[in-house]
Amino acid sequence: MKSYRKELWFDIKKRREFINITPDVEQCLLESGVKEGLVLVNAMHITASVFINDDESGLHHDFEVWLEKLAPEKPYSQYKHNTYEDNADGHLKRSIMGREVVVAITEGKLDFGPWEQIFYGEFDGKRRKRVLVKIIGN
Fold it and tell me: Each residue of 44-62: pLDDT tens digit?
């Protein structure tokens, strides 16, 4: 069995961003040489998420609006966590969107359903952030 590990780094320009990382994960899969197995992709930051969905700008806007209704960024004083930092909303948004995804690898390809793509969701950005890709299989 083969095992492969790589960290993907991103320079996040805004507080909140959704980045399609599918091409990056596909490159990792190619580098790994695994043809049958599993890939785990997880956020390495507590205010970030990795999730699978459609790469459609309207949907991404809807996620942003929906998440902001559930866990609004401001006023910062509404959160007990916000004493040293102002990112309590990011922790809550991450809890909603999830930490990681696992995708089957079949015949050397990510075994997706129609329209599925892997995204990194950042909820407390404006700095470098990372994602872990772990691939196991044959």
Answer: 999 999 999 999 999 999 9
SS3 61: helix
- Quote the crossing angle between the two packed helices 57-70 and 88-97, to the nearest 10°: 120
pLDDT value of residue 29: 98
Please state, in angstroms and as integers, the Cα–Cα distance from residue 121 to each residue in 18, 82, 129, 136, following that order. 5, 21, 11, 24
SS3 (DSSP) at 76: helix
Work out whether strand 117-122 and strand 109-110 pair parallel, antiparallel, or are unpaired: unpaired
Domains and CATH numbers, the chain: 2-137 (2.60.120.460)
pLDDT band at 22, cuts 50/70/90? Answer: very high
Q: Pairing mode, if any, of strands 100-106 and 37-43? A: antiparallel
CA dist 66 and 16 (Å) reads 13
Instruction: Provide the mean pLDDT of the chain.
Output: 97
